[in-house]
């Protein structure tokens, strides 16, 4: 039985995909994929770009374009082809033209933003994402990308805002709570009040997913950091905190209980997964 191209990752083994495609195309075996043959052409297109087989990539794109002319996905693939075979300016001009024709084309929007980030145009990419999420508010991936960009330039408050917006869209996603907690933990270095905010979000993450190592480890780190604060520092924090913030300031007894519980959970999870143990030991 011949190999199935759709079962192979074009990112991990692009050359293997091209070898199988060449063999199956020459022996008329592509028919076995039936309607999924278009997925095959897309996979081969990407694999060909990776190994710089530009002629084959263009051939696959032509087949897709003949079948799905003017579809947003095929337009996006041509943008990828330009990125790989032409200049930054050519690819950017193509994306701008497509967006002029159809400002709602989210695939082209994302290809353009990916292009800007790939060449280090962080500010332009950031501004583009701000405009994008203003129009396509429910795109969680775009919010995550914007948060990641803010993190990369140490704009942690803005990153936290992005995670808060994501939680409005996915209120039961523990990884978003953990990301929000991460942002607050970093901000605690300049303002310790964020330790309690971070602790609250880590706790919410483990409430949703009890075996979530990242969040349990975060709880442990927050509790240890809180315990290191002096009594004078704690009084100063309490005196300056708003009434809303005071409500989340866990007392020393709760912090100690959480520290013990998180330590236990971290030990349990690392004993079950050797890779986690190695991560902590690094």
From TrEMBL:
Q: Which GO terms describe its cellular component?
A: EMC complex
Residues of the EMC2 TPR-like domain: 77-179
Protein localization = Endoplasmic reticulum membrane
The UniProt entry, under Pfam families, shows: TPR_EMC2
Q: Which PROSITE patterns match?
A: TPR
Q: Which InterPro entries match?
A: EMC2-like (IPR039856), TPR-like_helical_dom_sf (IPR011990), TPR_EMC2 (IPR055217), TPR_rpt (IPR019734)
The membrane topology term of the UniProt record is: Peripheral membrane protein
Function comment: Part of the endoplasmic reticulum membrane protein complex (EMC) that enables the energy-independent insertion into endoplasmic reticulum membranes of newly synthesized membrane proteins.
Q: How does it assemble?
A: Component of the ER membrane protein complex (EMC).
- Matches recorded under PANTHER family: TETRATRICOPEPTIDE REPEAT PROTEIN
Q: What is this protein called in UniProt?
A: ER membrane protein complex subunit 2
Write down the species: Schizosaccharomyces osmophilus
